[in-house]
């Protein structure tokens, strides 16, 4: 079987490894230029050089240039880990169909940043769903599903490793089944019960001292390396939090219960101990802790600092226009 692998990420690399080890012919690997690659990109070019597979970089996939490039290889299948939807002009190229994946039990939890949301929500049991791609968002017929776990203490990197292992196993399984059933129809999804996860934003990984201990821990784990880390807002600073854990500080429970959220109990760089909604957390900071933080007793919810900034801008605007503020 002849195939083309699309994508700049480690997922594309796992597809390629499984296809190669199954004896399939990988006609081409197609990735993105370095400046456009996502945070979880992988060395697709290196894999191509190692196994003498043609390698291309495309800024966009749904273009006449991309169509000509892929059509030239006359693939039986396309295995896609491309971070954008494929349009009909690409989906129509292979002799049989395009294979995609999504790490949830489709039709549930379609959409953006699924591993992030699973870590944040504490979802531990999931599957890698292989799909026969169509133009919708994770709407294609479901092919094999491979179970994997996101353990309660897993970081986003751990979850990614588990997902990639499932992707490899599922690709190997398809390599066994597709020669026997090249037009594999799969199982139609029940679109009536589907839900979509939205795109993650910086606000979703900004900590709030009113969160519970478990919510803080899950949020930090959901955006740890290789991502740019969750943040804690303090005045004009956005402090990156590399790690969070239940505090080792010994204190009577009744005293902890009387502390308001945001109380700083200990600062021992790079770690600070902070009271949140239902307990104490140790937050390990990336880089230096702002000197002002060593002199205060509280961190406020992010809304206070945002309102302080807005108030300052309002005062500046009023001064510039000669108006007086009525308070």
Task: Compile the SSE list and pairings.
Elements: E1 2-6, H1 10-21, E2 25-31, H2 44-51, E3 55-57, H3 64-71, E4 77-80, H4 88-91, E5 97-102, E6 110-111, H5 114-121, E7 125-132, E8 141-149, H6 156-177, E9 196-197, E10 206-207, H7 213-222, E11 230-234, E12 237-246, H8 253-258, E13 264-268, E14 271-276, E15 279-285, H9 302-321
Parallel strand pairs: 1-2, 1-4, 2-3, 4-5, 6-9, 10-11
Antiparallel strand pairs: 5-7, 7-8, 11-12, 12-15, 13-14, 14-15
Strand content: 15-25%
Helical fraction: 25-40%
- List unreliable stretches of 5+ residues: 323-327
What pattern of helices and strands is seen along the backbone? EHEHEHEHEEHEEHEEHEEHEEEH
Quick one: overall form? elongated
CATH architecture of the largest domain: 3-Layer(aba) Sandwich
Q: Mind telling me the CATH superfamily name of the largest domain?
A: Formyl transferase, N-terminal domain
Structural category:
alpha/beta
